[in-house]
Design brief:
Blueprint (H helix, E strand, L loop, with lengths): L16 E2 L6 E2 L2 H11 L18 H23 L1 H4 L9 H12 L3 E3 L6 H4 L4 E5 L4 E12 L4 E9 L4 H9 L6 H6 L1 H5 L4 E6 L9 E3 L6 H5 L3 E3 L3 E6 L24 H8 L1 E7 L2 E7 L5 E5 L1
Parallel strand pairs: 3-9, 5-10
Antiparallel strand pairs: 1-2, 4-5, 5-6, 7-8, 7-10, 11-12, 12-13
C-alpha cells in the first residue's frame, strides 16, 4: 500500500477521494468534513488559480473550457433579461416617477428610487394627486409600519400627507375604532398608546444606522421635510420604556455623520491648507498652520 494513497486526515485507511481545491486525499465523508473544518477549505476547484504548464493536464483544460462556457451562458442570459440589462444609473424613470420626485422635492423631501428589479420599487404605490379644494398637488404615500415590540408589520396605501401620525395610528391602536384582531396583536401598544414614539431611519449615512424621532402630533409632510426617503417611508413604532429602544440610536442635528477619521498623511496635509476667499474682484489666499494662525496673506 503506497503512502501517498493513504487518507491525509485519519492516516489509517486507503484514500478514495481527492479534494478538487487543495488535492488532499480522504477516505470517507467524515474525513472530508473534518478536512474542511480543520483547514477551512471550500472543496471547490478555483477557476482562477494559476497552474504551471508542467502541471497542466486534460482535467485542467476541461475545467477552463467549462468555465468559459458558464461565462458565455451568463452573458447571454443577461442580454435577454431587460431588468438585468438596465444599469442602475441609466434606467429611465417613468412620467409618474418624475412627477412624484418633483413634487416631493418642492416639499423639501429628498425622494430616491431603487433599481427596477427590487421588490421595494415594484411595490411602491405612492402617487401625486391634485387637490381641487386647496389648488395644490398632494402626495398619497405608501407607508410601511413596523411595530417592533410586537413583531408585526403592516402596510397602508394612499395615505394623505396632511394626516398627523397620531391619526394614521388610530386604525391600529385605537381602543374603539381599530380592527379587533389587529388590536389584539398590538395589545402592548393599545395599553400604552400615550407612551409611543415613531422613528424614521436616516438614509445614506456613513455611520451606523441612526433614527429620527418624529413628532406624532405633526403631519406626515412636516415630519418628512428635510429627510431622505427611499421609495416610501418605513416607520418604526416603539414603546418609550421598552427594551428594544436601545437598538435604535437617535440622530441629532449636532452629529456630523459625514466626519471620517483622517490618515496620518491626510492629517499632515491638513496642517498646511490653503483657503481661497472671493470678495468681489479681490482674492485672498491664507495659508493656515496647525494652530489656525494665518502666516501669509496676499491680495
Amino acid at each position: 500500500m503506497e503512502v501517498e494513497k493513504m487518507c491525509d486526515v485519519c492516516g489509517t485507511t486507503m484514500a478514495r477521494y481527492c479534494c478538487p481545491n487543495c488535492g488532499k486525499r480522504t477516505c470517507s465523508v467524515f474525513c472530508v468534513r473534518q478536512h474542511k473544518e480543520d483547514t477551512g477549505c471550500t472543496g471547490k476547484r478555483s477557476m482562477s488559480k494559476y497552474v504551471p504548464l508542467s502541471e497542466f493536464t486534460t482535467s485542467t483544460l476541461l475545467s477552463d473550457y467549462y468555465f468559459l462556457e458558464d461565462v458565455s451562458r451568463v452573458i447571454d442570459a443577461t442580454t435577454r433579461d431587460t431588468i438585468k440589462r438596465t444599469h442602475y444609473l441609466g434606467w429611465r424613470r417613468t412620467k409618474n416617477m418624475n412627477r412624484l420626485k418633483s413634487v416631493a422635492h418642492s416639499k423639501g423631501i429628498d425622494l430616491q428610487f431603487s433599481p427596477p428589479g427590487l421588490t421595494i420599487h415594484k411595490t411602491n404605490t405612492s402617487k401625486v394627486i391634485f387637490n381641487k379644494a386647496n389648488r395644490c398637488q398632494q402626495i398619497l404615500w405608501r407607508i410601511h409600519w413596523k411595530f417592533h415590540d410586537c413583531g408585526m408589520e403592516y402596510y397602508d396605501e394612499n395615505v394623505n400627507e396632511d394626516l398627523t401620525i397620531n391619526k394614521m395610528l388610530e386604525k391600529y391602536i385605537d381602543s374603539t375604532n381599530s380592527n379587533p384582531l389587529t388590536r389584539h396583536r398590538l395589545l402592548k401598544y393599545v395599553k400604552n398608546s400615550r407612551n409611543i414614539i415613531v422613528l424614521l431611519r436616516k438614509e445614506r449615512t456613513t455611520m451606523k444606522h441612526r433614527y429620527y424621532q418624529l413628532n406624532i402630533s405633526d403631519t406626515l409632510m412636516n415630519n418628512l421635510k428635510g429627510k431622505t426617503i427611499i421609495e416610501y417611508p418605513v416607520l418604526y413604532v416603539l414603546l418609550r420604556d421598552g427594551n428594544s429602544l436601545k437598538d435604535f440610536p437617535m440622530f441629532t442635528e449636532q452629529q456630523n455623520d459625514d466626519k471620517k477619521e483622517l490618515t496620518p498623511r491626510e492629517e499632515e496635509e491638513f496642517k498646511y491648507t490653503t483657503e481661497t476667499k472671493d470678495v468681489g474682484n479681490i482674492t485672498k489666499i491664507e495659508e493656515v498652520n496647525e494652530k489656525g494662525n494665518a502666516i501669509c496673506e496676499i491680495e
